[in-house]
Amino acid sequence: MTAPPSRAEIAATARLVEGHVRRTPVIEVERRLVPHRGRLSLKLELLQVSGTFKARGAYATLLSQPVPAAGVVAASGGNFGVAVAYAAHDLGHAATVFVPRTAPPAKADRLRALGADVQAVGERYADALAASIEHAAATGALFAHAYDQPLVVAGAGTCALEVADQEPTADTVVVAVGGGGLLGGFASWYRDDVRLVAVETDRTPTLRSALDAGEPVDVAVGGIAASALGATRIGTIGFTAARQWVDEALLVGDDDVVAAQRWLWDELRVVAEPGGATALAALLSGAYRPKPDEHVVVLVCGANVDPGSVAPAG
Question: 3-state DSSP helix/strand/coil percent for the chain, to nearest 5?
Fold first, then answer.
């Protein structure tokens, strides 16, 4: 089992990727729109290069070691593949990305536009992961795991480092969970400094199922956020960090996620993918109820979606 990264390791990763990723903005939501009487800040990580926080871990992986002639290979429901393809294209490396056949066309098209060799296999992320491991063994390509490698988790932790600097008065930070890389990075940076709330949909419950079982377990996944949060088992790094430092693990429904997407567009003109709006859904739906004076920071973490599905013309 790999231990969660230290703060020193996350800070070193931030220096490694500096100049390749953006320091994304935080905005404060007007009080009239906040569900509680406290402060609500949104970390707009969906403005990250490649449209996802996963660019941080992708760059960290490719910058930390020599990349073989066969390039890099990854498996992804979409976002990590996009991040790897983006970073590989930028740094001059070949990229092969295995995706499940259920991957949204918008994400598969983006992969191809970035020059990646896209291979659609199976119906689940787990199928794509197995194929990517076989490809790495056969070709010598550098294997990048979407959420359960130390550098990938440390890369996600660089986002938490930024939030801590941008919003030092935060009482609570709310993040979405899929495979656990983002949560692992935030938990590893914040530790016990804030209340950390993890949110997943009731159709992608990898963390909740692992906490109930006492260890990572396979779960059936589906629903609106499956392309981003649809890992069938939480990673060991993220789970280890969650057991130590996560205060609440909450579930929201697909309808709650859609409502959060619409709220982001209607009130802020922000187009977020379902996984990117999942953390906010916990606040808007009442799954998480802050104290009246609580300063809550919510991570909005992904933008790889057809804009028309969120903000229809007319």
Answer: 45, 15, 35
Scored b (16 or more CB within 10 A) or e, 297-311 reads: bbbbbbbbbeeeebb
Pairing between β-strand 39-44 and β-strand 26-28 as defined by DSSP bridges: antiparallel
Measured CA distances, 122 to 99, 101, 138 (Å): 8, 6, 19
Average pLDDT over residues 139-146: 96
DSSP state of 289: -
- Separation between Cα atoms, residue 175 and residue 165, nearest integer Å: 17
Domains of the chain: 7-53+150-310 (3.40.50.1100), 54-144 (3.40.50.1100)
Q: Note the pTM of the prediction, 2 decimals.
A: 0.94
Mean pLDDT (the chain) is: 92
Cα–Cα nearest to 74, from 102, 98, 50: 98
Report DSSP state, residue 141: P
CB atoms within 10 A of CB 218: 12
Alpha carbon 48 to its chain centroid, in Å, reads: 11
